[in-house]
Amino acid sequence: MTRSTRRIQIGLAGRHAISLFILPAILAWFMAYPAWGQSGEREPHIGYLYPAGGQQGTTVQVLVGGQRLGGARSVHVSGAGVSATVLQYSRPLNNDQLKEVRKLLGNLVKLRRSGKTVPAFGLPEHPLLRNVDRMSLRELEHWIALRLNSAKKQQNMQLADMALLEITIAADAKPGRRELRLGTGGGLTNPLRFEVGGVVEVCEKEPNDRDTVELGAVDIPAVLNGQIMPGDVDRFRFRAQQGQQLVFTVQARALIPYLADAVPGWFQPVLALHDAQGRELAFADDYRFDPDPVFFHAVPESGEYEVEIRDSIYRGRDDFVYRIIVGEQPFITRLHPLGGRTGMKITAEIGGWNLLEKEILLDTAPGGASVRETALYTGPWRSNPIRYAVDNLPEMNEREPNDTLKKARKIDPPHIVNGRIAHPGDVDTFQFKAASGGAIVAEICARRLHSPVDSVLQLFDASGTRLATNDDWEDKGEGLLTHHADSYLRADLPKAGVYYVQVEDAQRQGGAEYGYRLRLGPPRPDFALRMTPSSVTFRASRTSPLTVYALRKDGFAGEIGLRLKEAPPGFKLEGARIPPGCDQVRMTITATQPFDSPAALELEGVATIGNETVVRPVTPCENMMQAFAYWHLTPTLQLLATAMGGKGRPPRIEAIGETPVRIPEGGSAQVSLRVPQAPMLEGIKLELSDPPKGIALQETISVPGKWSLVLKADAEAVKAGYADNLIVEAVKETAPPPKTKKNAKAQRVSLGVLPAIPFEIVSR
């Protein structure tokens, strides 16, 4: 999303001075690193890792593709037991270099065809060209066609910067998902998923498409790694024994959830299994609602088999990265119940493939997240992760028969029912009594817990008249879902009496795996919090903007305060509140003293609901675009911060006055900034970054030692009572180089932001 800025001319009056670290040090930093600004469009970004995982007790080389990775010097991997270093960074090959590479490799092919074994020479140092001289003639010809001469290959500058990493995984490193970030000359990148596993990892060796008959067979269990290029079809041959209960799982969208410039917005793999004669034995293009395919196959006889993967419509490029896990791995297909009450011992029934256990103990300890994740560990295997919910309401299990209003099971709200759409066409009905009229909430949690249920909720009165219904309801906190299939309804009951709630599957499907949780009761005002970005770089200003989103529940509209949780000393939040009724706020975090980077930070939100103080964690996220249009808050494991530009503390600029700034409706107010007198401040402009609608620039007043900024509020766009934060950005304009085009515009570079300034609109 394009970030806009508007010049700000504001005013502040008041009581509490705000310390604002800023500009001389920023300008010095800018002179040293002219290519990098504060703008989000200029942040370093990684688009893929290949391979995207490794085995415990091994060292693996990983290729990183992205944009603005210059100066890559450090690697940060979440969790213990994994360390990494940068071996090489390379900018994209320019046209002249590509022409020379084609020429050199063309000569190498001719020499190989003549029967001579010669090394490649004269090639530029670049991660893509490593090991080229070790390729066979056939491999080399295929590589040239795929990488250099393919007319189908999409040129994507967002993936053109490359870094080669060496990652060492300890033998006792915990298996599962990690996050990898690069520390670059422009700051910290976004995180990408890196998997730690317990079985052998194999990388594809091209050519390995349908026409290849020289595939070498691998032993299983194994993880098969590869990349799909345009039109590419990859095959792996493996040896299997009669009676093996094999599970094939693909990680593709799991690695890179959304692609901004591809439809449907992710790599959509298709997986097939063939016997030695080429007969198809199994096929999958998804697993339930998950685009990553999974299937089970009992091996009928010992021998060699082939597993094939491709994109569903034969697209491909460097970030179409996949992992195929093949073996007798445990895979859980059903869990019941899908959660339990806080603090209670809950043993859930599980079913699936290769499970030595039939039950699993759920962690319901107080203080954790409302939706949690667990897995089953067997030998070198970690099963697929399963999700469940924890709540403090009383719980009960559904009992059949309850298909009709006459057979409805009684509930005493508030209550949570653990139910199951037991067979196709099953309908579950529940009866409750209301002592008086008033609001009632019914909510299904199923798809959010990876259940296949596509629920429909209906509310009836005692006569069977339908009062309300809901099919799909969007939970914006579930950024990985694109079909929000859970139902939610809130209705006002007209009077005291008997009422009914009915649950069914919209597709009329059902089975043992079709579990759900129904919450029924009066509204429970609450909130959840998300924030972006999940990587923060403190430049010379030592201040960075954050956006926090409030996901309000059951009508909660109160103010939410934000604070750091057990943070290292020297960090401070500004503008740290979400005003009543507001769904998001931009605020800032400042590093007031040097710190050892990277630092893992946590935020939490605090609100008063009724007579209770409620504390909720802030989940870090990346705001990812899908297919040119849709934005999703995709959760990450941690908020990580790093510092650039030395450890010195820059001079301060102080805002003189109280906060929040009170701007009259349809009028203006002024804020004065006490600034040091320094020649280097000349030519710097202060602007509002992403100002709220209706807040417009009027003028900037500059006198020695003080800047005054005047802000006007549009009476039609913002009304009395509205509150938010102002993020003030420092911008430097430089004249274009002398030999540029006649109408070339001045170059604008962001030098950083000031700490957030809260404001509110008041009546005139």
Could you explain how this protein is built, in words?
With 764 residues, this protein is mainly β. Helix content is 5%, strand content 47%. Helix 2 runs antiparallel to helix 3 (137-147). Mean pLDDT is 88; it is low at 1-40.
Question: Can I get a quick summary?
Answer:
5% of the residues lie in helices and 47% in strands. The chain has three helices and 61 strands.
* Multimerization state: single chain
- Please state the overall shape, judged from the principal axes of the Cα atoms: flat
Distance between the termini: 35 Å
The fraction of residues in strands falls at over 45%
Structural class: mainly beta
Instruction: Point out poorly predicted stretches.
Output: 1-40
How many beta-strand runs?
61
Helix content: under 10%
Q: Averaging pLDDT over every residue, what do you get?
A: 88
Relevant terms:
764 residues, mainly beta, 9-stranded mixed β-sheet, 3 helices, 61 strands, 47% strand, flat
Topology:
Blueprint lengths: L4 E3 L10 E4 L1 H10 L12 E6 L2 E3 L3 E9 L6 E4 L4 E9 L4 H19 L23 H11 L13 E9 L6 E9 L2 E2 L3 E6 L3 E3 L13 E3 L2 E6 L5 E8 L4 E7 L17 E6 L5 E5 L9 E5 L4 E9 L9 E7 L3 E6 L2 E3 L4 E8 L5 E4 L8 E4 L2 E2 L2 E2 L3 E6 L3 E3 L11 E2 L4 E6 L6 E8 L3 E8 L9 E7 L4 E5 L17 E6 L3 E9 L9 E7 L4 E7 L2 E4 L4 E11 L6 E5 L6 E4 L2 E2 L5 E8 L7 E3 L1 E7 L2 E15 L3 E6 L3 E5 L8 E5 L4 E4 L3 E7 L9 E6 L5 E9 L2 E8 L9 E4 L1 E7 L12 E7 L3 E6 L2
Parallel strand pairs: 4-11, 12-14, 13-15, 23-29, 30-32, 31-33, 40-49, 41-51, 53-61
Antiparallel strand pairs: 1-55, 2-52, 3-5, 5-8, 6-9, 7-8, 9-10, 9-11, 14-21, 15-20, 16-19, 16-21, 17-18, 17-20, 22-24, 24-25, 26-29, 27-28, 32-39, 33-38, 34-37, 34-39, 35-36, 35-38, 40-42, 42-46, 43-45, 43-48, 44-46, 47-51, 48-49, 49-50, 52-54, 54-57, 55-59, 56-57, 58-61, 59-60
